[in-house]
Design brief:
Layout (H helix, E strand, L loop, with lengths): L1 H34 L3 H4 L4 E4 L4 E3 L5 E11 L2 E16 L2 E14 L6 E4 H7 L3 E5 L4 E4 L5 E3 L1 E4 L2 E4 L25 H14 L2
Parallel strand pairs: 1-6, 2-5
Antiparallel strand pairs: 3-4, 4-5, 7-8, 8-9, 10-11
Length: about 200
């Protein structure tokens, strides 16, 4: 009888320990979930001002409209193309905000950051005038109103966003970067054909 009683106590103790372990693991998972940053914080908000001939975004979440078109642009893997809308500060001493719309933005998931191609944007928005390369200040040609500007970051220009959103950054001050992407006409034609095929 004593052995049976001991056996039952052992089983009861084992079940209790198992339950405690399960509760502890559940608590740890819930705590990790609470402490892990929300998706918007993990997103890269570095919109660097680059040359080249294409805009690009690192995160799918950046797009307001999107069309899948897996392939390559040069050596970069592209998953799709779409439109991005960014809320921007107008000028260093101006608290007003505006909206920058970027069309035909490539989705480069392996990029170090996001890229706003200045030449492409100004060509598509002839009413905008780059008045200072130092601050990358852009104004309306018609009335001189400031529209958006950039600040130095890692030796390059970075678009100043409204609200200063924080997220992942993959750039470092002690390194040099070549962030511009030059897409060939052939690569762009292939991409547009894939987009057209996907929309049929």
């Amino acid at each position: 009888m004593g052995e049976i009683g001991d056996h039952h106590r052992d089983i009861k103790q084992h079940k209790k320990q198992h339950k405690q372990k399960h509760l502890k693991q559940k608590h740890q998972k819930e705590q990790q979930k609470r402490e892990s940053p929300p998706r918007s914080h993990r997103r890269c908000w570095d919109w660097m001002l680059v040359s080249g001939n294409v805009h690009y975004a690192k995160n799918r979440a950046a797009f307001t409209s999107y069309r899948r078109a897996p392939g390559k642009i040069g050596h970069m893997r592209v998953l799709g193309v779409g439109t991005v809308q960014l809320q921007v500060r107008r000028a260093p001493e101006d608290e007003r905000t505006g909206t920058m719309v970027l069309n035909d933005v490539m989705h480069f998931p392996d990029a170090l950051c996001n890229g706003v191609c200045i030449n492409k944007h100004l060509r598509e928005n002839p009413q905008e005038d780059l008045t200072s390369w130092k601050t990358f200040q852009v104004e309306d040609r018609n009335n001189g109103e400031p529209l958006w500007y950039g600040k130095d970051y890692c030796g390059l220009g970075r678009l100043v966003l409204a609200g200063d959103p924080q997220g992942e950054t993959y750039l470092s001050e002690d390194q040099g970067y070549l962030l511009s992407v030059h897409a060939s006409e052939a690569d762009l034609e292939k991409l547009h054909r894939r987009v057209d095929s996907a929309s049929l």
